[in-house]
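notes to self, project folder thing:

trying the whole complex as one job this time. last attempt i did each chain seperately and stitching them together was a nightmare. four parts in total, labels are on each line so i dont mix them up again. if this works i'll redo the older ones the same way
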Amino acid sequence: MTIAGRSSPTLDEVAELAGVSRATVSRVINDSPRVSPEAREAVHSAVAQLRYVPNRMARSLVTRRTDTIALVLSENNSQVFTDPFFASMVRELSARLSDTDRALVLLAARDRGEQEKVGRWVRQGHVDGVVLVSLHRDDLLPGMLRESNVPLVLLGRPLDGSDVSHVDADNAAGATTATEYLAAAGRRRIATVTGPLDMIAGVDRYAGYRHGLQAAGLPLSAELVEEGDFTEAGGARAMRALLERAPDLDAVFVASDPMAVGALRALHDAGRTVPGDVAVVGFDDAVVAATCDPPLTTVAQPLDEMTRLMVELLLRQVDGVADGPEVHVCDTRLVVRASA
Amino acid sequence: MTIAGRSSPTLDEVAELAGVSRATVSRVINDSPRVSPEAREAVHSAVAQLRYVPNRMARSLVTRRTDTIALVLSENNSQVFTDPFFASMVRELSARLSDTDRALVLLAARDRGEQEKVGRWVRQGHVDGVVLVSLHRDDLLPGMLRESNVPLVLLGRPLDGSDVSHVDADNAAGATTATEYLAAAGRRRIATVTGPLDMIAGVDRYAGYRHGLQAAGLPLSAELVEEGDFTEAGGARAMRALLERAPDLDAVFVASDPMAVGALRALHDAGRTVPGDVAVVGFDDAVVAATCDPPLTTVAQPLDEMTRLMVELLLRQVDGVADGPEVHVCDTRLVVRASA
DNA sequence: GTGGGGTGTGAGAGCGCTCTCACGGGTTCG
DNA sequence: CGAACCCGTGAGAGCGCTCTCACACCCCAC
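result (full assembly):
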């Protein structure tokens, strides 16, 4: 695809210039030890002189590997990008894969059409494996990818309970801890802003909240529950709704930090002090949690560990040394700051 | 890369099952008109039966096309993701490319190491072309990609003034309009929160601000200028700094909407009314501009048009029908809401 | 001096696809 | 009734690489 210009040099041209065979050049390129120093040197200088770059298509055709991994974001609103949790994950993932000399590409699949397109693209063999993130209930991709036998690992357990490798935080336990913490501090009217209830993280954190209430001997009341969408604006909106419905609430467990920041703002605007009038606990331990006002008590997920595990599970499949799907559930940790 | 399982079927197997030659199957796959209906039908059913998916590597090896375009984000802080302007662009870009049956992949290059890695990956022939976004002064990628002859289009004009296809908003003119608008409203102490001054959008909008002051016969004073980083938190921080240094300011031009939202918050916290005490104008017309309090007067960029143009310029290069680098500078438009 | 074991190298067979080219068989025209 | 033409098809070359295999060569033990 070079515009106006000689096409790129090939292995043969390098071989000819270096005065060796194609095979030897290939050995040098692939760091095989069985090459004499002289030959190696000759090849290296020929490569430099011709500015030779191996053609990945040709290489992949025979090796059946592309050395690239896809991170697929299956999310209908473009808000995922905006979530700092996601941004951190991309960074980690890309760093971990770099260690093994693999590239990371992101694919966004916002609607069914794009999901199908992404599924097809993956099945055509563009990537060695897929990390799938942000799953809603009606997502096509887990099914498509699973049945196409592409190495696959999910972030978060699959909504349909199918048997596929995944890494998850113990969302329910984390939410329970948060709720119990609020109860132990003497709060009695503990509300929650949940995540989207068609996402597993939303469901699990909500379940953990209920469990926490129960453990503390507190009743579950519908007016203390409002569904959010994991965004700051959504958190503010949900908080306003809660305040209107239940002005006597004295604590709120918010299922993500961006939403919690929104909730803090809504509380502030409503003239409530935090944690005086209302204690707030978030989820994720995003960067913003430490810098907002007041600093947010929140449930931390071991994101780095989770990312490391995902890469591990995935590469084990890619390398063909995996025996069956593997699952890791990581512990969460309550980070106590000023908001509760 | 299928784990434990028969490898995928090939063209030959389809041909055999359909009772035709490889060439005919290829014709059917590629929608050539010169195939009899019977043959076409036979091939289609064989494809369905074998669940055949063409191997892209093999195809690309001969066609020299991959039908995928990369969007490269060259940005050292992971904040780009967080910017709604960016999220909108990804959506648009991916939609426009879908129209031509091309896939979009995102590559993040945060540091020099990753930039080199991305450059290499691109040069190996994984993609047909590159859209490059968010350029800082010390970026390696424009150079690397330009000299590797990969079809390339930049969002925003290149910092080093080199001759490469790009699409940009008229940032300077937009900033001038905003500043003049504030001056025309009788504001005399007009501050600015700039973008990062190693990014062209930051530089140009700052230049436009200065030009606007000059046109209005207002002096440029250093205490009214604070550099931001295009994030909400950065905007709030910069606004606080400005208020401290110049408590008498009566307007502020903020070089991006997320920063403007932060500035609004800082102003609110400082007890200033908007637009009563301080008029605020943002830049980008992000979604949040319409929903924040008060709704933000802002400079809109024609993002959809810009994206369309980028795709157009890029595909013209990919298809080899481009004659030299092409440049488009798009007009901005002041959207007046309540904040100024 | 012969056999065995490295070690560096090259020839050559593919990987799965596309695409040119030639060919048989029908139609149309002079 | 033969030449000219189109149309559907298949044979086969080749895209740029990897990798197996065989070979030439050297070194050392017996």
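what i see at first glance: Chain B has three domains: 11-54, 68-169+304-330, 171-300.
need to look closer tmrw
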